[in-house]
Specification:
- It is globular, with a radius of gyration of 19 Å.
- The chain starts with a strand and ends with a helix.
- The model has no long low-confidence stretch (mean pLDDT 90).
- By secondary structure, it is an alpha/beta fold.
- It has a domain at 1-79 and 170-253: Rossmann fold (3-Layer(aba) Sandwich), CATH 3.40.50.
- It has helices at 42-49, 72-78, 95-101, 111-116, 120-138, 154-166, 184-199, 212-218, 236-240, 243-250; strands at residues 4-13, 16-26, 31-35, 57-62, 65-66, 80-82, 172-176, 204-208, 221-226, 229-234.
- The longest helix has 19 residues, at 120-138.
- The protein has ten helices and ten strands.
Length: 253
């Protein structure tokens, strides 16, 4: 069974078609890239998977269960986490506090225990802080762990956002343009982290990205969108040589 399966997905905003009869199959343990020109429907696809948008038609299945009609918090609890194209962190909070917020889907302490901070609440807090410290070590952000997020360079803020998603302990991670706006060194670091997330944490990744060098280096499968429709899919090498993909990016002569 695929980890994520999408069939016949369509999304309309009045007369605007963001996605049209789109199919996608994502297998466990892979990095699956979704590429396409600006306005192709990539972020709309992520918004449908994460429950922000409700599709006009079609179905989304995660581990065999339909999720296309669920709310974002329900989908997050099932094991799908995401980052955003524009950083969505709490700028006036510390790195640690931002990461701890990612643990909210795993909190089971009752109101009474949490209010008086005793028993199960204390044990759960300790467990979540240990998890956050592991993520801080993994993403190599020890030196900024107590700093306010808004004071950090852009590259570190991107790492913190990925870390917050990892704190949700997902099975599927959606990365929306993880290296956008980064220099060469920062891009290489994020690409390395993505591979480590797949291999060491055993988390499946769907990645929307415009940096074709990164996509071709780390993706197992690439799906190409143009005007809301799939125009190509396969290995990076297959997609690079697909005439429909070349025409979408470079235009027809």
């Amino acid at each position: 069974m695929p980890l994520l399966e999408i069939t016949g997905l369509s999304l309309h905003f009045g007369g605007i078609v963001a996605l049209s009869d789109f199919d996608l199959t994502v297998h466990k343990g892979t990095v699956h890239a979704v590429i396409g020109p600006n306005g192709a429907g990539k972020t709309s696809l992520f918004n449908c998977i994460s429950g922000i948008y409700r599709p006009t038609a079609g179905q989304i299945f995660f581990k065999g269960a339909g999720v296309s009609q669920l709310k974002p918090d329900q989908i997050a609890e099932m094991g799908i986490a995401r980052t955003f194209q524009n950083i969505e962190l709490f700028a006036h909070m510390s790195v640690i506090d931002n990461l701890l917020l990612g643990c909210h889907t795993k909190m089971t302490t009752g109101l009474f225990s949490a209010a008086f901070f005793w028993g199960k609440a204390v044990r759960e807090e300790e467990q979540h802080r240990l998890e956050v410290e592991r993520i801080i070590d993994f993403l190599e952000i020890e030196k900024v762990r107590k700093k306010t997020v808004g004071s950090l360079p852009y590259g570190f803020q991107k790492r913190v956002e990925i870390g917050r998603a990892l704190a949700m302990r997902p099975e599927l991670l959606l990365l929306d343009e993880p290296v956008a706006g980064m220099n060469v060194e920062e891009t290489e670091d994020i690409a390395r982290f993505v591979l480590d997330i797949k291999e060491e944490m055993e988390i499946t990744i769907i990645m929307v990205e415009h940096d074709m060098g990164v996509v071709m280096d780390i993706a197992d499968t690439v799906t190409v969108l143009d005007f809301g429709s799939k125009i190509g899919e396969g290995s990076p090498a297959e997609v690079q040589s697909n005439p429909h993909v070349i025409a979408a990016y470079l235009g027809q002569e």
